[in-house]
């Protein structure tokens, strides 16, 4: 048996499927499967804002660069990001350091 998604409006677990729509009996919210899939694939920053290719982000935490003594400092602006699949979901180039992969949880949209 497949697991039904939780309600995006109230997070209720008591959802059911009615034709092509999912319905929440607690808040009467209705949504389609395409709506629930698009929300799960969206990459969001530390504040919950959706990120897009080409956005500019700001680093919110000092990040050590693995394999070197360099550190990406808080407040570093990163321009023209590319979103990729995987654990590190941002591919970018940082001035003075070079090409890097970042996790979206350590950046905020500028």
Automatic annotation (TrEMBL):
It holds the Pfam family Zn_Ribbon_YjdM. Gene3D superfamilies: 2.20.25.10, SH3 Domains. Residues 43-110 form the Protein YjdM C-terminal domain. InterPro entries: YjdM, YjdM_C, YjdM_N. Residues 3-32 form the Protein YjdM N-terminal domain. NCBIfam families: phnA. Belongs to the YjdM family. This is Alkylphosphonate utilization protein. It comes from Halopseudomonas pachastrellae.
């Amino acid at each position: 048996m497949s697991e039904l998604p939780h309600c995006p409006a109230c997070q209720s677990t008591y959802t059911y499927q009615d034709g092509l729509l999912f319905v929440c009996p607690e808040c009467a919210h209705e949504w389609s499967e395409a709506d629930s899939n698009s929300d799960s694939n969206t990459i969001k920053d530390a504040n919950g804002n959706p990120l897009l290719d080409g956005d500019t982000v700001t680093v919110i935490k000092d990040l050590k660069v693995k394999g070197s003594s360099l550190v990406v400092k808080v407040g570093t602006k990163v321009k023209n990001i590319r979103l990729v699949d995987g654990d590190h979901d941002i591919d970018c180039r940082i001035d003075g350091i070079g090409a890097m992969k970042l996790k979206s949880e350590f950046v905020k949209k500028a």
